[in-house]
Predict the 3D structure of the following.
Amino acid sequence: MHSLIIHRETHIKVINAKPLYTKYILNIDMNKVTLKIFGMTCEDCVYTVKSNLEKAGAKEVNVSLENGTATLFIDSEKLSPQDLVKLPIFSKDSPYKAQVRKVE
């Protein structure tokens, strides 16, 4: 019996009910970031913003059209909140703009 349990950045492979750690990352440098997103008018906008944040390396991205916000987790060793607002999706030629509102 093989199963894979995935929880955020932790991967545990279970074989015959004995855990075998194939990859375990305890990353204390993960930061929760809240961005204010301007320019979204529809669900396609939400998808576009979300997919671009994920491509940049953000995890557990949640974009709210109603609130005009995005909450996500980043590895602070690889990506900073300021890196996010400088993504091409938020460039001066894009209809979307972002501001960092909160970092936890």
Summary: The first strand starts at residue 2 and ends at 7.
